[in-house]
Write a structure and sequence with these properties.
365 residues; alpha/beta; Aspartate Aminotransferase, domain 2; Aspartate Aminotransferase, domain 1; 2 domains; 14 strands; 38% helix
């Protein structure tokens, strides 16, 4: 049988299936007590007072921004090198995203770039813990505190990551998670907003349920962003497993670091004061590498190794934002050179060795 190692793979088993079946048999499929239990457990996991379940990571970002009062006439600083939803959620509020460049080593939002973008209408900064590595929270927090800006963590890719010994999700005014199937843990589709602020949590809860302060009484125009009991049932099982998943991701990443060191690839940098949980293992092909990225990826695909590009187009260069005129040269360079290799928990040591052998052989060809 030919080798086939996908670049990402959801991990669900009989326990998740049984949890979903239990909800199905109960007949209580929509938002209910299982969601409440998952929210409480996730809040404990992040060491925060509140967690609000929603139906996607994008919904989490949108609801968090609205709860923070972001709207037309405001600007919000976001990194240029991230998934599109970080910026589109700002636009969904009627506000304007301002694109900061990223640090060349960590790929995370650059505090110096952020500082240069702040203007009188700026109300918030969204920092992304990209690929599982926390951004420089202390530096961005200092900028926000000095200028009375809201700080939001986009933790969609960083469940269980840590910054200076503290888990993400409780490092800012609000944090937003995604539970898409290939994330470090999943609910199928889903998301979560976490915060220690009682008023913000209450506002998020209002906004995700049609603006209902109680049944059929609407005190705001809200959305149907509710999480279902079905999704929460999966989430409760996955939450018990996520630390095991993360430890395997870290093991796999360290193996790749060691065995790709002599291949010419630039392996991911992990800052010394963080726990990187490797949602993706994103290497770069430096100038002078013997293969172009497309040829490199094609060669790996021919040998059964899945790859991906996260992300081929910086958000500021997407057609919808092409008139923003942001200059983000580091993001441009990364978009042209990054490639993701398999690091998910189901990759075995034997498969890791095979990946490294194939990459090494390409350098020799």
């Amino acid at each position: 049988m030919p080798v086939k190692i996908p670049v990402a793979r959801p991990i669900v088993g009989e326990e998740e299936i049984a949890a979903v079946a239990s909800v199905m048999r109960s007949g209580m499929l929509a938002q209910g007590s299982v969601v409440t239990e998952f929210e409480s457990s996730f809040a404990d996991y992040c060491s925060v007072s509140h967690a609000v379940g929603v139906n996607s990571g994008t919904a989490a970002l949108h609801a968090a921004l609205l709860a923070a009062g972001i709207g037309p006439g405001d600007s919000v600083i976001v990194p240029a090198f991230t998934f599109f939803a970080t910026a589109s959620s700002v636009s969904m509020c009627g506000a304007t995203p301002l694109f900061a460049d990223v640090d060349a080593a960590t790929f995370n939002i650059d505090p110096d770039s952020v500082e240069g973008l702040i203007r009188p209408d700026t109300r918030a900064v969204i920092g992304v813990h990209l690929f599982g590595q926390p951004f420089d929270v202390a530096a961005i927090r200092a900028l926000c505190d000095d200028r009375d800006l809201v700080l939001i963590e986009d933790a969609a890719q960083a469940h269980g990551a840590e910054y200076r010994g503290k888990r993400v999700g409780g490092l800012a005014d609000l944090a937003c998670f995604s539970f898409y199937p290939t994330k470090n843990m999943t609910t199928g589709e889903g998301g979560m907003v976490t915060t220690d602020d009682d008023a913000l949590a209450e506002r998020v809860r209002l906004l995700i349920n049609h603006g209902q302060s109680k049944k059929y009484l609407h005190s705001a125009v809200g959305y149907n962003y509710r999480m279902t009991n079905i999704a929460a049932a999966i989430g409760l099982v996955q939450l018990d497993r996520v630390e095991g998943f993360n430890e395997r991701r870290i093991h796999n990443a360290r193996y790749l670091d060691r065995h790709l060191a002599d291949t010419g690839l630039a392996t991911p940098y992990a800052a010394p004061d963080v726990r990187h949980v490797y949602h993706q293992y994103v290497a770069t092909l430096p100038a002078g590498y013997p293969l172009g990225r497309d040829a490199f990826m094609s060669a790996l695909d021919d040998r059964g190794i899945g790859t991906a590009v996260h992300y081929p187009i910086p958000v500021n260069r997407q057609p919808v934002y092409e008139n923003e005129h942001a200059s983000c040269p580091v993001s441009d360079g990364l978009a042209a050179s990054v490639v993701s290799l398999p690091v998910h928990p189901s990759v075995t040591d034997e498969e890791l060795a095979y990946i490294c052998d194939v990459v090494r052989s390409l350098r020799a060809e």
